[in-house]
Design goal:
With about 475 residues, the chain is α/β, with parallel strands linked by helices. It has a single domain, classed as Alkaline Phosphatase, subunit A. It is about 30% helix and about 15% strand. Helix 7 runs parallel beside helix 9. The longest helix has 26 residues. It is globular and about 55 Å long. The N terminus and C terminus are likely disordered.
């Protein structure tokens, strides 16, 4: 009996000791001490296209609520001025040029002509896979575009670490664009019941073309002309769906335990002036209004979508995490990048990165919480979309950003701490800084691959990219009455 009591005592002490160890506690957790993560990534949503950013007529009360209950970061940048490379940076924590992803994924003729792969390599380390390994339930709802629906043999989102998905711009069935929030809410409810932490990528279609409008939303803006009315209606619809998500978190008492981030993959499309409304058809999302309804604003930033000027890469970024991130605050000094999201989310989740993996970004958890001085530990690099007007390469290091052309001959230098909107070129007054920055940029450029990984080529590319195969045609046709 005495020996049994000693054995039980030792066993109890061992359990107490192990339970006090953070690594063990995380492994045994029911998820209550690890926050849920909801990352809302819109498509072509300009920095100025928010009520809380002073837009004169756009109504975004639910996104404004996030700003009131969280912090609005004014110096967030994405890694590209277009969709697919920007999303690659979020998924991998790497600059997309590492994968030769310099533009959007299209049909194989176009991809081959532009020297890009047909999809992101599914074997590369990804954010959802890392969170999966930490015990998170992972899901993707909305736009994919890390391949394309026109390439039927491309990997599905589940190949990248998602437990569940509903998507468009991917192989297989195309999810209707307006079902994103409903699918996400069902996933939240399921994992709340299981007491399991979740990570959701909610990549919304709005306000990308085609603009899929509904009459009830167009009636909200009766005094606007057609282009502005269309744009306001699609953003209002997206904001309502975000409101449904926030209401679901409230109803399930998950608000305090959930980090919610709202952002955009790049700046606004079109000229911003609007034009004649014409109907267009997209093979992934169906029929809607075209570029004439794209009247997004950049909030005074130069450039727009497809540019690596601030108007193309400087996008909204609002983070809410009650009790952890300051409410009603504005951070207009911290330069945060899309490549920082992976290490940040991993730190928040207690997820380990794979051996040998090095992100291009750094965790910004302390910056989100306002406990760290706004200084980047690593430089940021951009490679622009080939054969587009404007700068082709850029580096941001400390207080300086350098932009240059494809031949590294035309230089622009900006002090982003004093001139965040990059209006005053200081290249002539600081030639030594421009030369030093150019050396760093060229050294980074020499590390980039000349060609994409052939393992990421579709079998249809080998066929010399003939007609669109039958199985690549969209399985979903947009119903305007939905």
């Amino acid at each position: 009996m005495h020996r049994q009591r000693i054995a039980r005592t030792i066993q109890l002490l061992t359990c107490l000791l192990l339970a006090s160890c953070p690594a063990f506690a995380a492994g045994q957790s029911d998820g209550s001490e690890r926050p849920n993560i909801l990352f809302i990534f819109t498509d072509d949503w300009g920095w100025g296209d928010l009520g809380c950013h002073g837009h004169p007529y756009l109504k975004t009360p639910n996104i404004d609520r996030l700003a009131q209950e969280g912090t609005d970061f004014h110096r967030f940048t994405v890694a590209s001025g277009v969709c697919s490379p920007s999303r690659t940076a979020v998924m991998t924590g790497h600059f997309p040029a590492r994968y030769k992803i310099d533009g959007h994924f299209a049909w194989v003729n176009s991809n081959a002509k532009r020297n890009v792969p047909d999809w992101l390599d599914p074997k590369t380390p990804t954010l959802p896979r890392m969170l999966q390994s930490a015990g998170y339930a992972t899901a993707h709802f909305g736009k994919w575009h890390l391949s394309n629906n026109m390439i039927p043999d491309s990997p599905l989102p589940t190949n990248y670490g998602y437990d569940e998905y509903g998507a468009f711009n991917c192989a297989g069935e195309q999810m209707p664009v307006h079902e994103d929030a409903a699918r996400a809410i069902a996933f939240i409810e399921k994992n709340a019941a299981a007491k399991k932490p979740f990570f959701i990528n909610l990549w919304m279609h709005e306000p990308h073309t085609p603009h899929h409008t509904l009459p009830e939303y167009r009636r909200r803006f009766p005094k606007l002309d057609d282009p502005n009315n269309v744009y306001a209606s699609v953003l209002s619809h997206a904001d309502d769906r975000i409101g449904e998500l926030l209401d679901a978190l409230d109803r399930l008492k998950l608000t305090d335990d959930t980090l919610v981030i709202f952002s955009s993959d790049n700046g606004p499309a079109g000229s911003g002036r609007g034009g004649k409304l014409t109907v267009m058809y997209d093979s992934a999302t169906g029929e809607g209004f075209g570029i004439g309804g794209s009247v997004g604003t950049t909030g005074g930033r130069n450039g727009r979508k497809a540019s690596i000027l601030q108007g193309g890469i400087g996008v909204p970024f609002i983070a809410r995490w009650p009790g952890k991130i300051k409410a009603g605050a504005i951070d207009d000094v911290s330069w945060i990048s899309a490549v920082d999201l992976l290490p940040t989310f991993c730190e928040i989740a207690g997820a380990e990165m794979p051996d040998g993996y090095q992100p291009d970004g750094t965790s910004q958890l302390a910056t989100l919480q306002g406990t760290k001085a706004p200084r980047r530990e690593k430089p940021l690099f951009w490679k622009g979309v080939p054969n587009r007007r404007g700068p082709s390469y850029s580096i941001l290091d400390g207080q300086w950003r350098l932009l240059t052309d494809a031949d590294f001959e035309i230089l622009e230098l900006f002090n982003v701490n004093k001139d965040p909107l990059e209006k005053n070129n200081l290249k002539d007054s600081h030639p030594e800084i421009a030369a030093e920055m150019l050396q760093k940029l060229q050294a980074w450029h020499r590390t980039l691959p000349a060609k994409p990984n052939p393992e990421c080529f579709s079998k249809y590319r080998a066929r010399n990219a003939g007609p669109l195969p039958t199985e690549a045609k969209p399985l979903f046709q947009f119903d305007p009455s939905r």
